[in-house]
Amino acid sequence: MQDSNHDNHHTENVQDHLKQVESLLHKHALLEMVAHRQVIPREDRHVVVDSLLHKQHLAELHRKLDDLHPADIAYILEALPIDQRLLVWDLVKSERDGEILIEVSDAVRDSLIASMNREELSAAAGQLDTDELADLAPDLPQNVMRDVFKSLSIEEREQLREAMSYSEDSVGALMDFSMIHVREDITLEVVSRYLRRFDELPDHTDQVFVVNREDKFIGVLPINLIVVNEPELSVSSLMLTDTIQLHPEEKADQAAQAFERYDLVSAPVIDEDGKLVGRVTVNVVLDFIRTESESDLLNQAGLREEEDIFASVWKSAQNRWLWLALNLCTAFFASRVIGGFENTIEKFVALATLMPIVAGIAGNSANQTTTIIIRSMALGQITQGNARRLLIKELAISGLNGLVWGGVAGLFAYFLYHNVALGVVMTSAMLLNLLVGAIVGMIIPLALQKFGRDPAIGSSVMITAITDSGGFFIFLGLATIFLV
């Protein structure tokens, strides 16, 4: 979102920037240690520390940070332990606080906001556009938001209220109010004069939006058409009317798909009355896609929220408890399944060494199915009409894999223990458990979506629990029937 003030800076690898900052912090820490070990009267010690530190490495670090893009500073802050993070944060110019707070992850943002007083937070929030402020608002104290709200113009207050009224996963939450619109009944010369009045165009302005006298959207005029055509031509003769239009209540992932499918840079947002209320730009869509991907990755692992890697042990542990507790319950259940076949295992000890293979292979296969299904759901490719056909296909794949790799496992069991019946049981158990894995691998994400939950939340945890318990039950059950 923040671009123009830092476009001329050199573009080293952000990892190099991080290493340089860490090196300066390390030198700072060493000098501080040396200064405090000197035999100096207590009342004079702070003078020595100041002269050694602030005039050397901290000053160099300050200059380094001034030369970095806000996104690079955000990356560095996320990669530093909290004490070093707060030291670097104090060195950042205050007029850039708002830009950086927008760029950092939610978890790290909390630690930075906690270190700032009311005046600092109000000043940082005051640097942001209304759409950016809406993103930051949930993390700010209410008294700070009251201060900021009072400082806004009437138009900005209405824009902020509107932006905050939409859910996080809607187009309205991605909407940007900084856009250029013109009337259809003017010439390109008038448009060019209007554009030259701006000190700079809003980021990612590839087109201007055309509205009528009632501010209703009627088309777009690409910037390149303004440049290459005669100035006497009218906007109405060149504007494009067959364009992608977004609506504030639409799901943001549908907008992201439209941007990818049609290679959009920007798109208008139209309300239910046909009026132009904002726009969505490709940089915001990319941020949304990245955030969603990270969220899906965390959800599949059973993590409740994004985690600051340098957060306290207690806070990080709490974030991981929910699904660990569920795992413990499912593990106890699996152990009781095994306990129900103690007599079978006692009579045929080889079963204990082979049953993890049946559970493990099925779990991997089910997670492959789930990954494909969740991806297809995100792209909108699964419908009620094709879900049944897709389930049959996944069952066929699992059946084929069960025959092939179950046969390999059965031969392995036969050569290892010289028992034909054990080999057949191994093959059959793997085939059946792979089929179970295909069913749960597809049904679990579909069921979660139907109940309004994120399909990725804990899917792998639940699937592993089912394929483990199911695998033990099928394998030991077959063994009880055919071996004992």
Characterise the protein shown here.
This protein is mainly α and 484 residues long. The chain folds into three domains: 4-170, MgtE N-terminal fold (Alpha Horseshoe); 181-300, CBS-domain; 313-482, SLC41 divalent cation transporters, integral membrane domain (Tetracycline Repressor, domain 2, Orthogonal Bundle). 67% of the residues lie in helices and 5% in strands. The strands form two sheets. The protein has a three-stranded mixed β-sheet with strand order 1-2-3. It has a two-stranded antiparallel sheet with strand order 4-5. Strand 4 (266-270) and strand 5 form a beta hairpin. The longest helix has 34 residues, at 384-417. The termini are far apart.
DSSP strand tally: 5
Top-tier CATH class of the largest domain: Mainly Alpha
Strand order of the largest sheet: 1-2-3
Give the distance, in angstroms, between the N- and C-terminal Cα atoms. 68 Å
Q: Low-confidence stretches at least 5 residues in length (pLDDT < 50)? A: 1-11
